[in-house]
Amino acid sequence: MSSTAPIPTPPASSTTSTLPAGDELRCTDADRERVIDLLKASYADGRLDQAEFDVRFDLTMKAKTYAALESITRDLVAQPTPAPAPAKPAHELLPPPTTEERLLAALAQATTWVPIVVGPAILYYTVGKRSEFVKHHAAGALNLQLTLLAVTIVTFGLGGALYGIAWVLATAFAVVALAGAPLRQPWVLPIFGRGGPYEKKRD
Prior knowledge:
Blueprint: H1 29-45, H2 50-62, H3 66-73, H4 99-110, H5 118-125, H6 132-154, H7 163-178
């Protein structure tokens, strides 16, 4: 016998003026039988002991309304559980960057106009200790400059032509930083900033 037998529900009524509404309606013998079936199944499953079964059986036989029957089986019927909320990216759990953080992050990106790693490195190791947002953008600028340097060395100087494109990228990245948005650069060497909250994807 199934332990998930349907619980009696009030039948739809075409009258609206004289009959009570909802659970206050009187139940039938068939409704009581369905509840007794559920009690028997719950006893067989071990969810009710003999004393509990006897008490609920007696209450079922004396029940007059749907509300009385529902209270007898409320803890025996599985209730739907809400689906867990999707996990947010780690950076969304941080407070939004301040105006100062945005300006410093944009400055870190703008240092690529003069490709010397000193500028973003200073911001990464100083301001980055107290601002994950600045650290994130300074790491992006460092990774971009080191990637350009590596390409230039590997191509015996031919990669230097990419610096013209880097100036355009630096401008665009600085605008992103001023807007207070994170920046993903999967095409650069991930040397700095790995594992930070702005690098973690949504689960």
